[in-house]
Each structure stands twice: as C-alpha cells, then as structure tokens.
Amino acid sequence: MACRNGHYDVAEYLIEHCHADIEQRGSVVFDGETIEGAPPLWCAAAAGHYPLASLLLSHGARVNSTTRTNSTPLRAACYDGHFEIVKLLIDHRADFEIANRHGHTCLMIACYKGHKQIAHYLVSLGADVNRRSVKGNTALHDCAESGSWDILKLLLQHNAKMDVDSYGMTPLLAASVTGHAHIVEYLIMRENLVSQKEKVDALELLGATYVDKKRDMVGALNYWKQAMNERYNGKTELPKPFQKTTVEAYDHVKEIRDPQQLDDLLSDPDEMRMQALVIRERILGPAHPDTSYYVRYRGAFYADAGQFGRCVSLWSYALDMQQRMLEPLNPMTQSSFFSFTELFSYMMGEEGRIPSRGRRVPPVSFNDLITVFDKAVKEVEMVGADVNAKDEEGNTALHTSATYHSCSPDLPRTLLKHGAHLDYVNDHGRTFEDILAERGQPLHTIVNPVSSTKLSCLASRVIRKHKIEYIGKIPKALESFVKNHGHDL
C-alpha cells in the first residue's frame, strides 16, 4: 500500500528497518479495477512513483515480476504513460516483450493508450511491431481502434503488417468500426497498402458506424457515396454481392446498389438505419460482437420511441445470432435475456395505464414471451440444466405451468419439446394432467397425450401402479426414472 500510494518514507523504513519482503504480493485498486497478485514494484510503476520504483530496484526487486494476469511493472508504466519509469525499468533490463495473459504486449498497450513517446522508444529498441495477441490483434489494430494516428504511421514506417485478427478484422476495418475516419482515410490513400475491396468495405462500414455510433446521417451518406464510387469507378468494377434473402427484423430492406437510391435515403432515416445494420452484418459477419450489439442498440432505440414490436423483433434476431455463434450462457447472451426481462416487465407494468408521454404501451404479446422462453430453455439446457428438475414439493416446470388460471398450450408444448415428461408425479402424487383437471381444463386441449408419451413412460407407470419391485432389478440409472412416474403412499 505504501508503494501504491507513494509513501516513500514508509516504504524505505519497512524495507531497511523491518526487512519487509520486497516481492510480497497483494490486491490493489486502479481505476476501479482490482489487480490481484500485484508486487510492490508493479504498484509503484503503475501509479507513476519514480522514486519508489528506483528504491525497490536498488534493493533487488525483480524487474519482471508479474501480477496474477502476467502484467509486468513495465506494462503497468506503459499503460498510464509514465515514460521516465519505462526508461528506468528498461535500464534495469526489463523485458518489453513479456505479454499479459491475453498476449497483449507493452507496445500494444502504449499504442492503444496513445502514448507516442513510449511507443517510439519501444520501437527504437526493437520491439516486435507484428506481435499478435491471443485474439490475433497487433499493435496496428490497437492504433486503429484508439485513433492513434501518429503511432500508426510510425509502425507502418517500421514494416508493420496489415494482418487480420481472430474475427477477420484488419486494422483498417477496426478503424471503421470505431469511427476513426482520419485513420481510414489515411490507410486507403496509401499506395499498394489495401485492395479495392478492402477500401470499399472500410468506407461502407465507416458509414454504418456514422449512422449508429455518431448519429451523423449526412456523414454516413458521404462515405457510402465514396464506397459506391470506388465500386464502379475504380480500376475494376466491383458490384455488391447479390442479396439472396432479406431479414424480417431489418424490415426486409435490401442493400442499395446505385447512386440514385443513395440520394433518396436522407428522406427516410429509418431505411438508412436498417441499411447500416445490413451492411455491418455482411462485412463483419454474425460472429463479431459489434454486429449483434448494434442490432440490440437499434432495438432499444425503437423501444424508447414506443415501437415495442420493432424492438422485440430486432432483439430476438440478435439473440438468435448470439446463440448460434457464442458458447452457452456467454455474458452477451445473458445480457440479451436480461434486456427482454426488463422490457416485458416494463410493458406489463404499464399496461392499462393512462399514457404519460402521449403514447399507450401495448400489452405484451404471448407469442413474443413464449419465443424468448423457448430460447431461454434451450440456453440453460446446453449447460446441463434438467427440464424435469423438481422443487421442494416435487413439482417440475410442467407442473408449475398447469397452475396458471388458464394454461396456454404454448408453454407446456415448449417444455415438452425440450424433454419434459408429461406423467411425472410430484410429492402429492399429482401429474400435470391432474392439476389441469382440478382447474377444469382437459389435457387434450393442451397436447395430444398419445404422441407426447413415450413407451418407457408407459412401462414405468405400470411398474408403479402395480407396485412391481424394481429396485435392484433394473439398471441403477433407470431407478429414479421409474420412481418419478408414481407416488409412494
């Protein structure tokens, strides 16, 4: 803590008189983030305390000691631009090629944070300008994403390559996604650096960024016109790929293919917003996080405007994309489910109220609810959740669905589709059908019991009904299955 907070006298006393462990690690907070396993030298370097860093080094502190995430004191100094400490550490033989657990090097972080002096110094020492992180990005990507134009030019002068990362993104596309027009324009103007297609994609993607991120329709239109001109008036004609299908969530828009249609766009901002989503998905693909992010962003825009149907349609499309491309229960997918929960909760809470802002909130569509419910069941199933799991009274989700005043067929049908058992009994010996009957609702109005019942279930019910001994007589794995089909009185 003395090194973190710059208390030189305290640190000196602890080292020289109390023989404190100069490598003792601990947890410290920087910019609201807790850093685990940080050694004293890392703390001093990150906080910019030059005298303390010098003191620690003079007493033998290891210059390349790391945090739990493999961040070195040198990387910490590069992060916040402490140039004098960077030089001090390198003078003590700090290794500037040690990357953190993400494969991110000292040069990369200096580029991302825009510390030109540090980047120039590291390059002059021979830092690898083409080193790749775990996700495949390079220092050029970091410059493009942060808008560090001067450093980007420096790297190109030292033979930095325009590589692609794990998402297939070049530094040029990275600049387009983040909206750094000056980087895009510089890269596409350099001779023999990028292809005609790369120029077109970058300009079209930059236009989409101007629509959604910068909210600059005129700027977006100008970049799309530049892209159109490059397509048809460049060295060779490069027509847009033929769009075989349209997306309902995007209002079935088709990408504009000629300059006249572009001019008409300004009179229809909604069409322009959909064009941006279509263009982004085509160029980045569904796997890139920005694709689904901006679909969700546009959905939220419509919700704020009271167009809840458009919001649900876009969010559902984004959720499909995430479930198709991401691992189960990815944080982005969880965020989408949470957004649906908030939206439906708000709509149900506002239903029937007198409009406060000149618009009435429509009732939640049960079809929308069941669609999202189906996706949620699918998601938790993929991580091992049991659709037949029971509560403290032995009720499954199917039992619970029957307790509603009027059980809609869609809910139990969704559960059955995912493997729910129609004839499981709870601790009171009641099945889904029994609970329905108590409410005066016949089973056949919900599902066809014949097509929804397996032969193994029928056999289990016979065993339980006639009290046939089965414990130890059948495979252990089947005993609980049979047990769930009857009740011990």
UniProtKB/TrEMBL annotation:
It comes from the Eukaryota. GO terms for cellular component: ubiquitin ligase complex. SMART domains: ANK. Signal peptide: none annotated. Gene3D superfamilies: Ankyrin repeat-containing domain, Tetratricopeptide repeat domain. Belongs to the fem-1 family. This is Protein fem-1 homolog CG6966. It comes from Megalurothrips usitatus (bean blossom thrips).
